[in-house]
Amino acid sequence: MKRANAVEFSENSKLGGMSTTYAAIGSCPADCPFKKARACYGMSGPIGWQWLKLGGRGVDLIAKDEAKAIDGLSGMNDLRIHALGDCSTNEAAKLISAAAERYMKRSRGRSTAFTYTHAWRNVDRKSWGKVSVVASCETAEMVKEAKARGYATAVVVEKHESDKAYIRGLRLSLARNRLAAQNLALNVASVCMTTN
Ligand code: SF4
């Protein structure tokens, strides 16, 4: 069974046209609230049908296959690692960051590689190397914890009243995201990048 795949140019509305990867759900951390609630947007609709066809166990084996898939991409577009999936071990993040660095090298500086992760508690920021990685958080306390681990952060909020919104002392910048709106089981309306 295929564990991961990569798409040269995805027109998925969440991505807006770039290269991307999908890794089997076995790559996702067990404590991801969207996984636990079966509320991840990848679990339904046409995208879910494609994603859930990926299988196989072993976070690091999935990452190895995903790294190979990244090596098959041209490097001509920005790369969103993990439209779905994650790296929940340091070894997996190192495999993917090494492939992403090869990708950026192929692009001769034209493309960048970035991702979000729910596994920031278990994976060191340094394992992601030059990949731009944002820790996905659900509370202000988690934001502080992720920042202390060296991560940039994004937080899910119930309401996004303005671009200058604050949540429990954290300043937010606008990053409305369909991902959150689709996760209705968690009753969220938007995802915001934290700026302090
Ligand atoms: S939100 Fe991310 S980490 Fe969580 S189940 Fe979905 S793809 Fe996996």
Describe the fold and architecture.
This protein is α/β, with parallel strands linked by helices and 196 residues long. It is 28% helix and 24% strand. It has a 9-stranded mixed sheet. A hairpin with a 7-residue loop joins strand 1 and strand 2. The chain binds iron/sulfur cluster (SF4). Iron/sulfur cluster binds next to helix 1.
Can I get a quick summary?
With 196 residues, this protein is an alpha/beta fold. It contains 6 helices and 9 strands; from the N terminus they run ββαααβαββαβββαβ.
Per DSSP, what share of the residues sits in E-state strands of 2 or more residues?
15-25%
Spatial extent as radius of gyration: 16 Å
Poorly predicted regions are: 165-169, 171-191
* Average of pLDDT: 84
Domain count: 1
- How helical, in percent, are the residues? 25-40%
Identify the notable features of this structure and list them briefly:
nine-stranded mixed sheet, alpha/beta, binds iron/sulfur cluster, 196 residues, globular, 28% helix
